[in-house]
Write a structure and sequence with these properties.
The chain is α/β, with parallel strands linked by helices. The chain has one domain: Alpha-Beta Barrel (TIM Barrel). The protein is 29% helix and 23% strand. It is built from 13 helices and 21 strands. The strands form 4 sheets. The chain has an 8-stranded parallel β-sheet with strand order 8-11-12-13-14-15-16-17. A 7-stranded mixed β-sheet has the order 3-2-7-18-19-20-21. β9 and β10 form a beta hairpin. It is globular and about 75 Å long. Bound molecules: zinc ion. Zinc ion (ZN) binds next to loops.
Length: 462
């Protein structure tokens, strides 16, 4: 479609300016103060964005749509996940492919892409999980890179769920990733500390409120330090997913002071809500790993965002229905994860920009440009540069609303932010030149999303 967006305030990670933006077919054609009639194609839709922000489509760099794990499947499948993402102004997500049993690493991505293709209504890229080293890891990772996957994920915990991997193979993976320029991302919680904490409360019930005791901030601190030091010793970058605690942030700062290149992501839930919810009725709805912390941690993490130690906000969207969630009241077996992609923009705008902690250019940086750079999608995604994909979010910052269990698009049927007053709404969302959301109505198509092969992570070039 050809679209002219007029009268809006363009926001990138660097600047704000009052300019017009011309989209031709699926690309941004040009950005100018104004266009004369002869410059415009004859078939043209004009969008008046007066009083609104026009920014690159958001990227949720951490989602688990249709996750198959622990004997169940996550509630939001690829289609549902991508629709709710559009309501949140998100035009690209980066999801995770499992390391399949008895298969080479890259088979996970091939399988995952085959499931997502024909379902996703927005674009996606992949991270690949690695849980073991069987053969020639260099060769296997080379195959992965050829598919356009340039980030892998390592777990330092979850022995029971089959994700944990020992330190020796981890070092092998780190070395191979450095050779190939693949970014290693880490779920950082030290398993030995978690085991020791668990033993102390053995033979007692394990209610949800115990999870922050077992999966302590200290466990996060230790794992970040240990794996960060491995990366530092190999002179390679490392990416920490979903940082949850003030102690974890201490570890990040200590590594940075030692010259380690650490890229850090946190989530809206670690920034805004606390483990008070784990002490109340319905605690299961608020259980994820790492667990929710204290309000002092919320504050410290915002501090990390403001200081720049945290450069990316993503959601770890991983949903289960109430029926799934309430199958257990044991914090070790409740399916972990909460909805988030749809709420990400409104929460970061309300708690970050409205409260004066960050400005709107930084919001674009945290939710679009930096994830695009870290995961090799920039400038195709995450920018308003001419020639790149016309993924655009028109954001109305004046709109006020209340997040409620019954006004969400997740199949989970609830939101951990129920009752929260928010400012701002994704007014219009454009994916590669097609309007997929307008006036709170989803206009996209099942299967219109594409897999976006990633290039080299920006973490390797700075
Ligand atoms: Zn995750």
């Amino acid at each position: 479609m050809n679209i002219l967006i007029k009268n809006g305030r363009l926001v990138s990670a660097q600047k704000m300016e009052d300019k017009e933006i011309l989209i031709e077919n699926d690309k941004i054609k040009s950005v100018k103060d104004s266009f004369s009639d002869i410059e415009l194609p004859s078939k043209l839709k004009i969008i008046d964005a007066k009083g609104k922000y026009v920014m690159p489509g958001l990227i949720d760099a951490h989602t688990h749509y249709q996750l198959v794990s622990r004997g169940t499947v996550a509630a939001d499948k690829f289609y549902e996940g991508s629709v709710l993402a559009a309501f949140g102004g998100v035009t690209t997500v980066i999801d995770f492919a499992d390391h399949l049993p008895d298969k080479e690493i890259a088979e996970g991505t091939i399988h995952r892409n085959s499931e997502a293709t024909g379902e996703m209504a927005i674009d996606w890229a992949q991270h690949q999980v690695i849980t073991r080293v069987d053969g020639d890891v260099n060769k296997e990772l080379e195959e992965l890179k050829k598919l356009g996957v340039t980030a892998v994920k390592i777990f330092t915990t979850y022995k029971n769920a089959g994700y944990f991997i020992e330190k020796d193979p981890v070092k092998e993976i780190f070395k191979a990733c450095k050779d190939l320029g693949i970014l290693v991302t880490i779920h950082a919680e030290d398993d030995d500390i978690i085991e020791a904490n668990s033993k102390q409360v053995e033979n007692k019930p394990y209610p949800p409120e115990l999870l922050p005791v077992i999966r302590s901030s200290e466990a996060e601190y230790r794992a970040i330090k240990d794996y960060g030091e491995i990366a530092g010793s190999l002179d390679m970058p490392i990416y920490i997913v979903h940082l949850s605690s003030s102690r974890g942030l201490d570890a990040v700062r200590e590594l940075k002071a030692d010259g380690v290149n650490v890229v850090v992501e946190t989530t809206p839930h670690y920034l805004t809500i606390t483990n008070d919810f784990l002490k109340k009725e319905g605690a299961q709805k608020f259980l994820m790993t790492p667990p929710l912390r204290e309000s002092a941690d919320n504050k410290a993490l915002w501090g990390g965002v403001v200081s720049g130690d945290i450069s990316i906000i993503a959601t770890d969207h991983c949903t289960f229905t109430l029926e799934q969630k309430f199958q257990s009241n044991d914090c070790r077996t409740i399916f972990p994860g909460v909805p988030g992609t749809e709420e990400m923009l409104q929460i970061v705008y309300t708690d970050g920009v409205e409260k004066g902690l960050i400005d709107i250019t930084r919001l674009v940086s945290l939710l679009s440009t930096e994830p695009a750079k870290a995961f090799g999608l920039y400038p195709l995604k995450g920018s308003l540069e001419p020639g790149t994909d016309a993924d655009i979010l028109i954001f109305d910052s004046a709109k006020e609303s209340v997040l409620r269990n019954d006004n969400r698009h997740t199949v989970a049927g609830y939101t951990p932010y129920d009752g929260m007053k928010v400012k701002g709404r994704a007014e219009t969302v454009i994916l590669r030149g097609e309007i997929i959301l307008e006036n709170n109505e989803f206009l996209g198509k099942r299967g219109a999303g594409r897999f976006i092969p990633a290039g080299l992570s920006g973490a390797y070039t700075k």
